[in-house]
Amino acid sequence: DIQLTQSPSSVSASVGDRVTITCRASQGISNWLAWYQQKPGNAPKLLIYAASSLHPGVPSRFSGSGSGTDFTLTISSLQPEDFATYYCQQANTFPYTFGQGTKLEIK
Amino acid sequence: EVHLVESGGGLVQPGGSLRLSCSASGFTFTNYLIAWVRQAPGKGLEWVANIKQDGSEKYYVDSVKGRFTISRDNAKISLFLQMNSLRVEDTAVYYCARGYSYMDVWGKGTTVTVSS
User: Fold this and answer.
1) Which of A18, A26, A37 is closest to A1 using CA atoms?
2) What is the 3-state secondary structure of A56-72?
3) H-type helices in B1-116, by residue range?
C-alpha cells in the first residue's frame, strides 16, 4: 500500500499567517492527490484535487502543488474558520490511503 | 441540494454483523461511484471500499476483504455495506462519499461500535 506522511502533525498559527503542510508519498503517485479539511464532529470537505485544482466553492487562499512524491497545501492568509485538521489522500492505486492528518490550531 | 445520508449503525458484539445504508438525493446517482470511508474514535480517515456506477467493479482495503461487501441498488438510489465477522477495530464512524478518485460529497456518518 502507498503510505502518505504528513508534516507537521500539528501546527499553531495566527490569523493572517501563511501556513504550509506537506504530504510525502512512499512511491510516485503522479498528481493523484487530494486535500481535505475536517472540523470536529463534521465530515471531511474536499479542498484540492489532482494536486493543484481548487474544488468549486473553496476560497482562493487555499492552494496545492506537487507531483510524484512530494506535495504541499498552502493557506495564504489564515482565517478563523480555517482552524481544523487537514488530510491528504492518494488516488493513484487501490487501496486509496490518507495521510495521518495535520491539526492546525490557533496560536 | 446534493445529500448523502447514512443509517444502520449501532452497537454489535465481536463476530456479529451489521448492514449500513446510504441514501442519495440531489444528483444522478447512476453517474457516480460511491465509497465508504471510516474514522475510528480520535483517529484519521481510512478508505474502506468503493463501487462503480453499475456495480460491476468493487475495491476493498485489505483489512475488510472477505468480511465486508459493498453493493448498490440504483433503482432505490442507495448504497450498502454488509459487515460480517466484525472486530473491535472496526469501531468507527462510517461515511459514504461520492466520487471515484476524489470524494466531493460526504454524508454526516453513522457510528458503528463493536464491543462485548
Assistant:
1) A26
2) CCCCCCEEEEEECCEEE
3) none
SS3 A33: strand
Secondary structure class of B88 (helix, strand, coil):
helix
| Cβ neighbourhood burial of B13 (10 Å; 0-12, 13-18, 19+) | exposed
CA atoms of B69 and B64, how far apart (whole Å): 9
Cβ contact B60:B78 at 8 Å: no
Peptide bond into A8 cis (omega under 30): yes
Residues of A in contact with B22 (CB under 8 A): none
**What are B21-60's pLDDT values in tens digits?**
999 999 999 999 999 999 999 999 999 999 999 989 999 9
Cis peptide before B41 (omega within 30 of 0): no
In this predicted model, what pLDDT tens digit does every residue of B64-96 receive, in sequence order?
999 999 999 999 999 999 999 999 999 999 999
Select the residue of A32, A43, A95 nearest B47 (Cβ to Cβ): A95
Q: Is A54 on the interface with B (CB under 8 A)?
A: no
Q: Which amino acid is at A60?
A: S
B112, B19 contact by CB (below 8 A): no
What φ, ψ does residue B88 adopt, rounded to 5°? -55, -40
Alpha carbon distance A41, A80 (integer Å): 17
Q: Quick check: A36 contacting B, CB < 8 Å?
A: yes
